[in-house]
Design brief:
about 190 residues; alpha/beta; 6 helices; about 35% helix
Length: about 190
């Protein structure tokens, strides 16, 4: 096989070392239990992404992803129940550990159904690893992804790498929203924009 046909062009692994994760996220707290305001804001981001009621979303089918800690699993269950109660579809629920030798299987399960959007409730270390694998190996789009409060942290965006999480939106525990733009998390107040 010649170099022209691909030999020697392997991309670097997106896997982060434990030292990199600890150095960047050492003091990031684990996910706390979700609040009603947070869940309402997550639902609102999916059903009315402008926040002003001018344009309704066509998001019907989602895939829910979560890390295996109790708070993230509970948030994922609460979201899935509320989404289904609203007459919408959850095509799959995928969980992952905080550490794995390979993230490809989890990434494939998260993206294979090709949903309208993804909803993520996770601890920062595992989501950093997962999001890097998603960007490296799948057609996942962070702009079609909504997260719970634990993921609204600029340290996570920096660890995931340039552009990996740009466009991802989410909710804070008090019902505010956040978006990741150029590696920074920007928060906004609930309600219509000024």
């Amino acid at each position: 096989m010649s170099a022209r046909s691909g030999e020697g062009r392997r991309a670097a692994s997106p896997l982060l070392s434990a030292a990199e994760v600890t150095a960047q996220l050492g003091d990031v707290p684990p996910p706390a239990g979700h609040t009603d305001a947070e869940l309402a804001a997550v639902l609102g981001l999916l059903t009315d992404p402008t926040g002003a009621g001018r344009r309704r979303s066509r998001i019907e089918a989602v895939v829910v992803g979560h890390s295996r800690d109790a708070a993230s699993a509970a948030a994922a269950r609460a979201f899935a129940g509320a989404w289904r109660a609203a007459g919408r579809q959850v095509w799959a629920t995928v969980d992952w550990p905080e550490e794995a030798a390979s993230w490809l299987r989890f990434a494939g399960r998260l993206t294979a159904p090709e949903p309208d959007a993804w909803v993520i409730a996770a601890a920062a270390p595992g989501w950093a690893q997962m999001s890097r694998r998603l960007r490296h190996s799948t057609g996942w789009d962070p702009a079609r992804t909504v997260g719970f409060a634990a993921l609204g942290d600029s340290r996570l965006a920096a660890l995931a790498g340039p552009g990996t999480l740009d466009g991802m939106r989410g909710a804070t525990a008090d019902g505010h929203t956040w978006v990741i733009d150029r590696g920074w998390v920007t928060r906004s107040l609930p309600g219509p924009p000024a």
